[in-house]
Design a protein that fits this description.
Length: 101
């Protein structure tokens, strides 16, 4: 599996979850988007880099979501979401790559 797929899923989860919650005014629906994309990204990371890396990257994903809230008070909502999404994507590309044989 390409390292880009779980990265795209994580990016979609963070950006899409926020946009869904904002557009629908339904936080639970945004959380469902976040959770579904995160679960799919976990499976991709696990396949590519193993369980340990998948757990670490999923933790990064969840921490990024949590960090976006206080960061939004300093930067604004969208800049905070973009910042944590970029950090998560970089971590995914660096640590979520395929195993070397």
């Amino acid at each position: 599996m390409s390292a880009l797929l779980p990265t795209a899923l994580a990016t979609t989860g963070l950006l899409g979850g926020y946009q869904t919650a904002r557009a629908t005014k339904n936080r639970q629906l945004g959380g469902a988007v976040l959770a579904a994309a995160g679960a799919a990204a976990f499976l991709g990371w696990k396949k590519n880099a193993g369980t340990g890396a998948a757990v670490a990257l999923t933790t990064t994903y969840v921490v990024a979501f949590g960090a976006s809230h206080p960061l939004a008070k300093k930067l604004g909502a969208w800049p905070a979401v973009y910042t944590v999404t970029a950090a998560t994507a970089v971590a995914s590309l660096v640590f979520g790559r395929g195993k070397k044989n």
